[in-house]
Design brief:
The protein has 625 residues and is of the alpha+beta class. Among the domains are: 103 residues, Transthyretin/hydroxyisourate hydrolase domain (Immunoglobulin-like); 291 residues, no CATH class. Helix content is 45%, strand content 10%. The strands form 2 sheets. A 4-stranded mixed sheet has the order 4-1-7-8, with no helix packed on it. A hairpin with a 6-residue loop joins β7 and β8. α4 packs across α14 and α4 packs antiparallel against α17. It is globular and about 90 Å long. The two termini are 18 Å apart.
Amino acid sequence: MARPINPGSGLLPLVALLAAVCVAPLTAQLSSARGPHHKSTSLKMDEAFLTIKNELDTAVVVSWMSEHCYQCLYQTLGLVPARLGPGSPSSADFIVGTQHGITLQLNSSSFNLELCTVPFHFGEHGNYSLWLKNLSDSSVVNCSMVTDAEPVNSFIPILIAFLLLTGLTIFSAIGTTILGLDVVRNFLLRLGSSMETERLINSELGSPGWVVETTNDNILPPQPVASKRLRSLDTFRGISLVVMVFVNYGGGRYWFFRHESWNGLTVADLVFPWFVFIMGTSVALSVNSLLRTGCSRASLLRKAVWRSLQLFLIGVLVINPNYCQGPLSWDTLRIPGVLQRLAWSYLMVAMLDSLVAKVDIGNLPTDAWWYPGREILLYWPAWLFVLVLEAVWLCLTFLLPVPGCPSGYLGPGGIGDMGLYSNCTGGAAGYIDRWLLGDNHIYQMPSSRVIYATQMPFDPEGVLGSINSVLMAFLGLQAGKILLHYRDAHSKIISRFLIWGLFLGVLSAILTKCSRDRGFIPVNKNLWSLSYVTSLACFAFVVLVLVYYTVDVKRWWTGVPFYYPGMNSILVYVGHEIFEEYFPFRWRMVNTQSHAEHLTQNLLATSCWVLIAFILYKKKIFWKI
């Protein structure tokens, strides 16, 4: 029988024990171009070496801008002196970033005249030369890029890891198929029986066990059969959690395994909303099950409040990034966070469903006008509440006056938007956090600093974005309602999931105008924008369809290995944050500037947590909050 850990009696000792552990903050490393260097300087990850050779009679000011930066100001890279004499060019060396393409702008220092612009995507650890010279017409400047040393292919480690994981998956599938054959299974059963008999005969301590005969004349009524647990939900939760652990540990230091600097999506931006989505789905099934067993709605509300409080306290007191600055200081304590956002989303959705959930959905009148849309219309008060919440988000985002910023500003500030709104990071969302919580109680190193060089603190788990996290959880709750109202009607469940995915996808296309930066509401993880929620919910419905079909309908896949961490999600998440700096999750590397070593370390650390979850599953130990 499962032995759930009771957090009610052990929360405070757990906090006291774990609060002493230093959790390394996820600091963003700038991949931008940097100042003058010499060739003897060793290159770091995502860097290349550039020599600019100047054959002009004027000194040249070199500036740069990332092509990933929308409407940004050029930043000064350095100065290249005028040529020393005829046939004697001057030169200057620079380190440039390789994560994204860069546009170099070269201006004459004497006349402040643009000589040329050179867009180029440098390769990691490559050596390049940029020549500036006059051709036959002295007024025309020729800028030509030359590759002196070929860059390394930094994606080879990912390819090797993919091939290895694919090979292990194929090997495991073949082994499972072979073991499932009747001939093999019968052989193993006979072999196991004979070995056990021999062990009992030859062991001095061995003795046959007692045999208890059972009869069918039990006068007691049979125990109620527990509702079938959908493995696809735990598998989907496990997929989100495993990818979350991997990207939190560094993702091999690849930029696409880090959060997007502002608008757009990377792999790291997918998993947290999916976790919120599947939490909402689980709430629908859990509330329905508890109501059918006789739990009162008042008790469900009390449980929702208590669980949310525990999640919030763990997020603030246990895995707060301020621990690495020493003991917690209340003056600089970060209040928002991932678990805090989960606590808020869970509280709102669980309370809503506890109030509006129907106990007996199997005896609904099939001739009622609302019956075809029962999974929505039966819960119209909850839908109305969520729509009002979303209207509040829209009004605050686009109408709230923000000092020094235009109304409805959704940009990153800094050097974005030509530097006109440098202190307007996040618009209303950032302003509300700074007003309610204070500058010192929100995240100090937002991902917008990587490309947009912002200076304002901004929290991606802030107050205003919490409204849309409730919407994300509520859409997951809707998936749970579909599962409840169409039990075992697989085709109806799948069709409705796909309809929701299509609807949300079309809505996202309208909101974003199918672009990254030019839409009405761009996809933005930092803001948890409306289009971010609709896009990720669209993906979530599609992924859930695939997992549901392969795991629960066709049973082609058992969900392994993601099923195990999905069954112990809170323990794995809290544990991976706390023990991040401990062996075997981290060790001193030979070459800290190698993607291969970082990828190996992060994959092994993530695999360790999958193994831990598997062992706990076998021991029937689950941490339930």
